[in-house]
Amino acid sequence: MDALLLHGGEVYDPEAAGAGGHGALRRADVLLVDGRVAAVGEALSLPEGTRAVDCAGLLVTPGLVDLHAHVFVGQDLGVDPDVVGPPSGTTTFVDTGSAGAHLFGAFRRGTIDRAGTRVRAFLNISSIGATSILLAGELENLAYANEDVCLAGAREHADRVIGIKVRASGNVVGRSGAEPMHRARRVADTLGLPLMVHLGPAPPGSDEIMATLRKGDVLTHCYTGFEDNRLSVGGRVRESVLEARERGVVFDVAHGMSAFDAEVATEMLAAGFRPDTISSDVHAYSLDAVGDLPTVMSKFLALGMELEEVLACATLKPALHAGMAADGVGTLRVGAPADVAAFELVAGPVAYADTRGGTFEGSRRLRTALTVRAGVIVHEALKEGRQ
What we know:
The chain has 387 residues and is α/β, with parallel strands linked by helices. The protein is built from 12 helices and 17 strands.
């Protein structure tokens, strides 16, 4: 029996009753046995030989779930989930369109099935995926947005594909306009899967995109600063955006290298429009801008969101929208996968930058101290003498 006790931490349970419905914090121990959560509480009965890790002063959470990333190792865009995941407390990545149907087999064999980190994916409507993004958009040639090919690829890899992705912005679609988005919509509907739409510079415009989205679909890059497609204008959230949220559309951060404008985020947060999920959009070109998922989460602490709300947006909520919460991903419920992270909540002034040249300040930040994946410690940055 392989048993690990995370002792004395401030445990965040996203499924517990808490203020605002965002989960709750309490001092507790977390017992992990044979790759599963065995118990959460105090004075737990421990199996013989249990290894204990002192987590006093640390925030203990479910392993983070990043709803928007690019982890196709060996592809121009991809980063290695087993390199960027453990130091960030991220135990699950959702790849968002790195691969289309003609490359998904390579993505699966080379990354998904070999990674220690859990990986699921939105399949790109373009058969070539988001390859060589600095050279050309994958949807400039409409022939690649073949619905039959996408359907076949999604069905072949149905155990790993959780939705369909389209990068519906002018710098990706070129003269194809809104047609790739409409094709992606039809494929998602045929499969009964959610559609994720990337928001960037028009065309298509944000109102047209909102009209395309339905309950359970994801609008990613919701705080983009591209002037023609900002979701808030003059401090007011667009009516089409409010109507989409009312229908159950999910609004995702996806910071990335150019998609996070602190001014837009501040305006929308002030108007009561919170993100449903906080994701990084980490990839080979965005690493310097993003840092990691805890850094993006810390930016939202600086912008005034509560700690429990921020944690929910990077654990249970993305797991729910990715269809993995029923299996315990993003939770600490008994029987869930033993994916856990521990963070220091470091006090002190910190300067942040958005992706549009703006800066702002915060007073605390999350720093990863420990990451456990399937019951195995994969990252440790604990102070000497804790164990």
